[in-house]
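User: Can you predict the 3D structure of tRNA modification GTPase MnmE? Sequence below.
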Amino acid sequence: MGISDTIYALSSGGLPSGVAMIRISGTRTTEVLAKLSGKIPAPRLAKLSSIRGRNDQLIDQGLVLFFKGPGSFTGEDCAELQLHGGKAVVEAVLTELAYLGCRHAEAGEFSRRAFQNDKLDLVEIEGLADLIAAETEMQRRLAVEHSSGHLSSLYEGWSRRLVHARAMIEAELDFADEEDVPGSVSPSVWADMSLLGEEIGTHLDGAAVAEIIRDGLNVVIAGAPNAGKSSLLNALAQRDIAIVTEIAGTTRDVLSVDLSLAGFSIKLHDTAGLRETQDLVEKEGIRRARNVISKADLVIALSDNPCDFPELGAVGTIRVGTKIDSNPDLWDKSAADVLISVKTGQGMERLIDVIVSRLPDLNAFSNFALPSRRRHVDCLNEARTAIHSSLAAADLGLDIQAEYLRIAGDALGRITGRVDVEDLLSIIFSEFCVGK
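Assistant: Sure. Here are the predicted structure tokens for tRNA modification GTPase MnmE:
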């Protein structure tokens, strides 16, 4: 990437469309706008303009907006062209921008420039990527909390407390004989650092919930052959995903479908029937089934016989009796958690209610300021460990304790991108679509 280049990209998605938005950013934005539309509009005011190419050829008419840096998304001079969303129109404008010496943006390059110009930090940028990718209400709410800067404010507040603690310790170490330096500040410093360690620990308790919100709850349907697993998958998905037959062992592989339930993303997996077999293909399917069961957040164990529930050893299991329309006398209320018939629909609403009851309880969290990525969790654990090490190093001297607090501060700084994150940037921005 050349950070001095003026870049452009289609930012509005697939074509054709009603409106196509082309974004431009860089030092030559005003020059390019003048050549395309003849006149630069007042900042932040949309102006209907004719977009012309070489030889004054009319390409299209559309709205032109100009954002003067640093008061723009990237911190540079920016422009947006809102045109008719035809492929030929967009291609003509992009070709003209390239002819004028601009460069097509790489994935995430607009957001990367916003980071480099201190318009957004890494947590806000990751939240922006999650907001674009959000498919459920909970994913949207989590992403908004991150992209709006609320989580960053929490981490920055913790960083300021660490800096203050280090400053007090350094003052005590270096200027203890000065009249304007208070006496031992250590008791108040260590009380606040102990509290900070507890706050980070409480914050980390929400990491598992945030992971489920962002990545989805893994729910596996398991049971013996012909217990009704594939039929249940199709019924919950409300479309035919899996082949259903009376032949035992029809499902040989793990089939998956994404659902939205109570605002959460549910990744529902159908698996091969669990039984002893000599068939090599079916045996491989059973191995894969047990592997996905071992990683599940929730297992729906099916059986059409109350004496034949599979022993899975899973922590979160819902025992579901199936085919009760054909065998109602086999079952009593204590034999299973839920009794269903996919054919008649009996018990299906009850099953959905039970699945919803196993979703994370968000009442324990006052907001969605939760650590949602592995790197956030790793840095927070490092910060908490360093704070605990500082508290435990009272016999080693204030200089050692201050160094542990510096390590904690650096760990928090890496979350927002304030400290030593160059190796992370390519990975983070590669998640973005071109034009963002």
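The domain at 124-206+381-416 is CATH 1.20.120.430 (Four Helix Bundle (Hemerythrin (Met), subunit A)). The chain is about 45% helix and 15% strand.
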